[in-house]
Specification:
Elements lengths: L7 H7 L7 E6 H14 L5 E5 L6 H7 L5 E4 L2 H11 L5 E3 L6 H9 L4 E4 L2 H14 L3 E8 L9 E2 L9 E2 L3 H8 L5 E7 L3 E2 L4 H22 L5 E3 L17 H12 L4 E6 L1 H4 L3 E13 L2 E6 L8 H5 L5 E4 L12 E10 L8 E12 L3 E4 L21 E5 L5
Parallel strand pairs: 1-19, 2-3, 2-12, 3-4, 4-5, 5-6, 6-8, 6-9, 9-11, 11-12, 14-16
Antiparallel strand pairs: 1-13, 7-10, 13-14, 13-18, 15-18, 16-17
Helix pairs in contact: 2-3, 3-4, 5-6, 8-9
């Protein structure tokens, strides 16, 4: 698994030279290699869907379509993006905590393969709309485990959250499902944690979930076709060279996954994160009350992940020697530097008090691992600054 690290010269050859640098660069060929490598490590028969929420750019979806089993979406808008980018025949499955009549109607019209149901209300809505359409809608029931569950960056199950049906309520949901004649039960969905960096612990969690699904199927006389074990395969923003042990995870899960039901995974971050960077030009440098700041063309309105997770995002300083002004070039050396954007809020911070050997106005800050949950979760039009360039590289971009 490679990590995109462009040089200043490579950036200069790609961006618009008539304005300060602010751009996302995406290596789509590396993204596709990553997908093929992960798929090749999975247990036999397991399927990998791409979680569109991580990065929904049309270029990303088109590049991944030939490699992944399909796409996992969380909104009607994502269904339409997938169809527009990847065509009418790619497989789509749909999750998410809130569904409306219109969502279900669009899901049926766009031939979405399966709905992950997260509540009794969603069960009733899905059944009503499918019945009105005169069709049968395949579903999985999403389970919120009783816990405890392994630690991770985000936890959606095992604690009180808005996601899924509480484990204790699954028997009642299964009984109600018998009345929903326009729905077809295919299995269970578990997406309990996100960004789990413990491959062995994650395999143990998935094994437990798979065994629980089988036990329910036996107890209630169910035809268990599919268990979707979600994503949650972690990345480490504090160490860009660290990698989740996909092969070890698959080996640890292999014995439990043999035979029925079929397994599905829906991963986003681990696929998209490594193969993009966010590059910003330093427009100003100042020291305020003893603290050094580099102010960038860009910020959290383009790349919200660091402020959302309150972490210091990994970066490189890419030096540029050109200095067009007659006055001395401001610079800082061997200092603790805070990287901020152009927004009128002290929360617009991408890294805090990070040691830097040298930074000058006009140099570039290259944020690594910027391909997932950056642009897609950001408040692009706050203050109405220009959007960054979005540049896609490789044969897959053609």
């Amino acid at each position: 698994m490679t990590l995109l690290k462009p040089t200043a010269a490579q950036v200069a050859a790609l961006v618009d030279g008539d304005r300060p640098v602010c751009a996302f660069l995406h290596d789509l060929d590396a993204l596709c290699r990553q997908a093929r490598s992960m798929i090749g490590a999975l247990p036999p028969g397991a399927e990998l869907f791409y979680a569109v929420k991580a990065n929904n750019a049309a270029e990303t979806l088109r590049a991944l379509a030939p490699h992944v089993a399909g796409f996992e979406v969380a909104s009607a808008g994502e269904i339409l993006k997938v169809r527009a980018a990847a065509g009418p025949d790619v497989r789509i499955i749909m999750g998410g905590p809130v569904r409306t009549h219109a969502d279900i109607a669009l899901l049926l019209a766009q031939r979405v393969e399966r709905l992950h149901v997260e509540s009794v209300q969603m069960l009733r809505i899905a059944n009503a709309v499918a019945a009105e359409a005169g069709t049968t809608l395949p579903i999985l029931l999403r389970v919120n485990l009783a816990g405890p569950v392994p630690g991770a960056t985000l936890t959606m199950g095992g604690v009180a959250t808005q996601f899924g049906i509480a484990q204790s309520d699954i028997p009642d949901a299964l009984r109600m499902l018998k009345e929903c004649t326009a729905l077809r039960f295919d299995g269970f969905h578990f997406h309990t944690v996100s960004n789990n960096r413990d491959a062995a612990g994650h395999a143990a969690l998935c094994t437990m979930e798979l065994n629980l699904a089988r036990a329910w199927a036996t107890e209630h006389g169910l035809d268990l076709r599919i268990v979707n074990l979600g994503g949650g395969w972690g990345v480490d923003y504090a160490d860009p060279n660290w990698r989740f042990d996909v092969a070890g995870f698959a080996r640890a899960l292999a014995s439990a996954s043999a035979g029925a039901p079929a397994l599905q995974f829906e991963c986003g971050r681990i696929l998209a994160a490594y193969h993009a960077v966010y590059v910003c030009e330093i427009l100003d440098i100042k020291t305020v009350h003893g603290r050094a700041f580099a102010l960038l063309r860009g910020g959290s309105h383009h790349f919200r992940l660091p402020s959302s997770w309150v972490h210091d995002h990994p970066f490189l300083v890419l030096p540029r020697d050109a200095w067009p002004h007659p006055w001395p070039r401001p610079e800082l050396a061997n200092t603790m530097l805070t990287l901020t954007g152009e927004l009128c809020t002290p929360k617009d911070v991408l890294a805090r008090n990070v040691p830097v050997a040298r930074a000058r106005i006009g140099d570039l800050i290259c944020f690594l691992m910027a391909g997932a949950y950056g642009w897609e979760i950001s408040h692009h039009d706050f203050l109405s600054h220009p959007h960054p360039e979005r540049i896609y590289l490789g044969e897959a971009a053609a």
